[in-house]
């Protein structure tokens, strides 16, 4: 399910563009591919939970210092929509292609040593990011067709309330709100 927003009385050139992310109550895209850049402790947890991972040494092999565009690293990172990193390896991320991850919009999310790995991954999969660019409309995923109506409603209400809190004038800046399934007709809700 896609959530489409249309703004009024909002000039992206003059007004401040907003950026924000919110964790929704339900996982939006359960089939999203992700990988954990893991230390020794998280490698064991990843193996037990059948989660894709890569260790620090294997990732360093993908980095060629002569290659300024990091083609091997990009080819590897392109397979995944989200990356996670163990807390102990966070300070090594800049050496392991951190600027490139930032440039591609895939900077890894930190997993603390004592955190539940699957819970952190579910949190990452249920987080949406609002980022207004140069256009006055916005579209983002709030659910999938397999979710119940109640789950979609919970995600929709949470995302709308967060969006309204980001806007300068609140509801007066919103022209229209529409939800749409992939092949279905759009339904205007505001």
How many individual domains? 2
Q: At the first level of CATH, what is the class of the largest domain?
A: Alpha Beta
Helix content: 25-40%
Low-confidence stretches: none
Following the backbone from N to C, one meets helices and strands in this order, namely EEEHEHHEHEHEEHEE
Radius of gyration: 19 Å
Our estimate of the beta-strand percent is 15-25%
Let me know the CATH homologous superfamily of the largest domain: Ribosomal protein L1/L10, domain II
Q: What is the level-2 CATH architecture name of the largest domain?
A: 3-Layer(aba) Sandwich
| CATH fold-level name of the largest domain | Rossmann fold
Average the pLDDT over all residues and give the rounded result.
Answer: 84
- Count of individual helical segments: 6
Can you describe this structure?
The protein is α/β, with parallel strands linked by helices and 190 residues long. The protein folds into two domains: 2-28 and 127-188, Ribulose 1,5 Bisphosphate Carboxylase/Oxygenase, CATH 3.30.190; 34-123, Rossmann fold, CATH 3.40.50. 30% of the residues lie in helices and 24% in strands. The chain contains six helices and ten strands, in the order βββαβααβαβαββαββ. The chain has helices at residues 40-49, 56-61, 71-77, 98-104, 117-125, 149-166; strands spanning 2-7, 19-23, 34-38, 53-55, 82-86, 109-111, 127-131, 137-141, 174-180, 187-188. The strands form three sheets. The chain has a four-stranded antiparallel β-sheet with strand order 8-1-9-10, with no helix packed on it. Strands 4-3-5-6 form a four-stranded parallel β-sheet. The protein has a two-stranded antiparallel ribbon with strand order 2-7. It is globular and about 50 Å long. The two termini are 16 Å apart. The model has no long low-confidence stretch (mean pLDDT 84).
């Amino acid at each position: 399910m896609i959530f489409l927003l249309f703004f009024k009385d909002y000039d992206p050139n003059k007004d401040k563009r907003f950026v924000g992310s919110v964790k929704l109550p339900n996982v939006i895209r359960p089939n999203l591919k992700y990988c954990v850049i893991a230390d020794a402790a998280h490698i064991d947890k990843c193996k037990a939970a059948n989660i894709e991972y890569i260790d620090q040494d294997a990732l360093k092999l993908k980095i060629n210092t002569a290659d300024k565009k990091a083609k091997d690293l990009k080819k590897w990172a392109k397979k995944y929509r989200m990356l996670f990193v163990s807390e102990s390896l966070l300070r090594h991320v800049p050496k392991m292609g951190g600027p490139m991850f930032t440039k591609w919009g895939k900077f890894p999310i930190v997993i603390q040593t004592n955190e539940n790995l699957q819970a952190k991954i579910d949190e990452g999969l249920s987080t949406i990011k609002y980022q207004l660019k140069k256009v006055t409309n916005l579209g983002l995923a709030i659910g999938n067709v397999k979710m119940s109506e109640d789950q979609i409603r919970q995600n929709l209400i949470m995302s709308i309330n967060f969006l309204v809190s980001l806007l300068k004038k609140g509801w007066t800046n919103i022209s229209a709100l529409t939800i749409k399934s992939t092949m279905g007709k759009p339904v205007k809700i505001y």
